[in-house]
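Hi P.,

Sorry for the delay on this. The queue was packed all week, but I finally got your sequence through. Input first:
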Amino acid sequence: MTPVVLVVGPSRAGVGGVVAALRTRLPDVEVVEGPPPRAPDAVLAVVSAAAPMTRSQWADVERASAGSGLLVGVVAKIDAHRQWRDVVAANRDGAERWGSRTAIPWVGAAAAPVLGDADVDELVRVLRAGLARPPIARAVRAAVSASDVLARTRLRLVRSVRDGASALRTELRAAAATVPPGGAQAFEVQVRARVEVFLKTVDRDVADAVGEAAAELGCGDRVAVPRGHACRLEPSDAGRPTSSRRLEARLAAVLGLGFGVGTALAVGRLVAGWAPGVSTAGLVAGAVMGLALGVWVVRTRRLLHDRAVLDRWVADVAGTVRWHAEARVAEWLLSVASAGRDAGPRVGSRATPEGPAGSLKQVTDQYEWRCDG
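Then the structure:
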């Protein structure tokens, strides 16, 4: 089968000259500039030697080379720009920094010089060496590239999920510390609403990242981007915990009684010392103040207990939400990897007796989670 080489690049970069020169030097290779007749065996990214390429230009190159295992960078028009070697170095650094592929060969070429003969010897040598490499070797390079894409996407999403869950926990714990008496039920509603907002945000981020990864791997049409299927916690997951308060109530009652009796006796003696003739009024005043103080102690102790329970609860909720969100990330990245395997050898897989490595069951068995849709 005749190898197919696709030449891409921005306008006025010298793409046409490179195509014409290679068709002359490589008659046994089909060199195309437009849409290739099939998946290309190699892609040449042609940029001008006038200035280093931009990130958007390299993004276009990566999209065009998604189905190819061989990618070669070409700096054209080196006959007109003496600083072309600096441009080659800058392009090499930019490609390694922006892209998912590593060790991309970069060469200079003068395919259509104003004076003299065309200089594409180095390009021809690199291209022939790459095409002579066994197809399995090119597939392995592509599989490694796809693994890099998935790993980079997973790292970004997991970091975002963990940072968001940590911020959510801090926010809810601060709110739990200010819950008023009798406000536990309203606080539970607030927590549920905040969790729903967080999970919808995670779902949107996952959808965007999955779409980008699928497009980069050339399997965007095989992956149903997860939009409108936000994970949600069931009542058993996010319901406010109930705890036995019998012992706590007894302790609060004893403390309140102690404070109340002590206050009543102290006030009664104080009034009797100031005005011995009104000792009865002093006892009554002491009893009232003691009762008020005892009730305040009991209610305050109950409020502090409720806040402590809510604080522990929101910490558990934040951990559960983080687990749900990470499961969401794992599920959809697995769908991208599976679609990539179906599309071709771009995403490597390791077979096991149970099925492909990293199957959906193997991933989701690690989590207990529920999602709509």
